[in-house]
Amino acid sequence: MAIEYAQRIRRIPTYPVAAGYDLGADVAMLAANESHWPPAAEVVEAAAAALRGVHRYPDPAYAPLREALSARYGIPSSRIALGNGSCDILLAAGEALLEPGAEVVYAWPSFSVYAHLAAASGARAIEVPLDGEDRHDLAAIAAEVTVATRLVLVCNPNNPTSTSLPLDELDAFLAGVPQHVCVILDEAYCEFSLRLGDPYASLGLLARHPNVVLLRTFSKAYGLAGLRAGYALCGTDTFRTAVDQLRQPFYVNAAAQAAAVEALRHQDEVERRVVATVAGRQALADGARQLGLWVAESDANFVWIRVHDAADDRAAEHEAAVVAGLRERDVLVRAGASLGRAGYLRVTVGSERDHERLLAGLEALLPH
Fold first, then answer.
1. Which of 112, 175, 337, 344 is 20–30 Å from 314 (CA)?
2. 295 shares a domain with 251
3. Which domain holds residue 246?
4. Residues 247 and 313 in one domain
5. Rama region for 345: left / alpha / beta (φ>0; ψ in -120 to 50; rest)
6. pLDDT tens per residue, range 187-215
7. CB 94 within 8 A of CB 151
8. Average pLDDT taken over every residue of the chain
9. pLDDT at 262
10. CA pair distance 271, 347, nearest whole angstrom
């Protein structure tokens, strides 16, 4: 007799990981929205130094990292949640807020992990289509909020479509959401956003809307994807307390803590990399448009490119052929079909050479 698993295991979708990490060294890695640049040398040294003490458990209060984030953002440390990447906090939020009979509302396509929250908890997921420019339709999302709604997720800038909304529109939207509903603004890519201005710009939302949580990560702009460290700036301390109750002890390892604290000391270096990423983003988008392709107005460290009409029932087939053809040319990108929209590619900003290889591949693979 086979092992019998809980029903929710059958409901939870498999996270769509990017294939191809075994392709070798000379590969244009444009699939995972990682930083093209490694962290500053001092950050690597801080992580290495922490390894000398790995016979001890990490600080269970995460005091140095909480205090460093508190100093940077002016948020009390009691209102800062930490996690093994921002996904850890997101999944814990689903456990803390959702249950059968409750509802979670989010745009689609958006971050793939959102679908896990309802599936794991037994809550009902309300997926609201993006607008014609692949942006969040805040009016449509607001219309779906009911007495059963416990959680609203807004990814800004949105993954996978790269688009964002200005803070005044978000502020007006939040003013209409009942205070008992938690709203998580997933800002994993906020450092790259010209529309949002800077990472401090959305902090005012916390003062005006205590039911809001700003979810962020060290994986993107700070270049620490391999260490997994995320954080949330919370309107109240109850959110932090709730998600902490649901997780195992020591959920951020010692090396990740040390690297994140040190990374916060090197904002000039982070800014230089953000500026370079934004310039590369524009060059990549311009190159794709010169091939006659539609590209969303990106505010992230990746671009969203349409390679086939999504309304065509063969969109996924054509998209898969392009992805396979690029892989044969040692260019790794993410297929839109795996992210909720067939006929598109999500392409991370890389080096100039990476972009040249991608664009040459697209020119060869797409019909003229």
1. 112
2. no
3. 41-263
4. no
5. beta
6. 999 999 988 888 899 999 999 999 999 99
7. yes
8. 94
9. 98
10. 21
Is 265:259 a contact under the CB 8 Å cutoff? no
Residues 112 and 209 in one domain: yes
* pLDDT value at residue 54: 93
Residue 82 placed within a domain: yes
2 assigned to some structural domain: no
Is 347 contained in some domain?
yes
Write out pLDDT tens, residues 232-279.
999 999 999 999 999 999 999 999 999 999 999 999 999 999 999 999
Domain boundary pick from 263, 286, 305: 263
The span from the CA of 91 to the CA of 279, in Å, is 33
Residues in contact with 289: Cβ distance below 8 Å, sequence separation at least 6, in sequence order: 295
Please give the single-letter amino acid code of residue 335: A
pTM: 0.94
Q: Is 39 exposed, middle or buried (0-12, 13-18, 19+ CB in 10 A)?
A: buried
Please tell me whether residues 87 and 34 are part of one structural domain.
no
**Given the DSSP bridges, would you call strands 124-129 and 103-108 parallel, antiparallel or unpaired?**
parallel
Domain match, 296 and 342 both: yes
Query: Are both 86 and 47 inside the same structural domain?
Result: yes
For residue 368, is pLDDT > 90? no
Per-residue model confidence (pLDDT) at position 11: 79
* Contact status, residue 239 vs residue 97, Cβ threshold 8 Å: no
Domain shared by 337 and 283, yes or no: yes
Tens digits of per-residue pLDDT, 177-192? 999 999 999 999 999 9
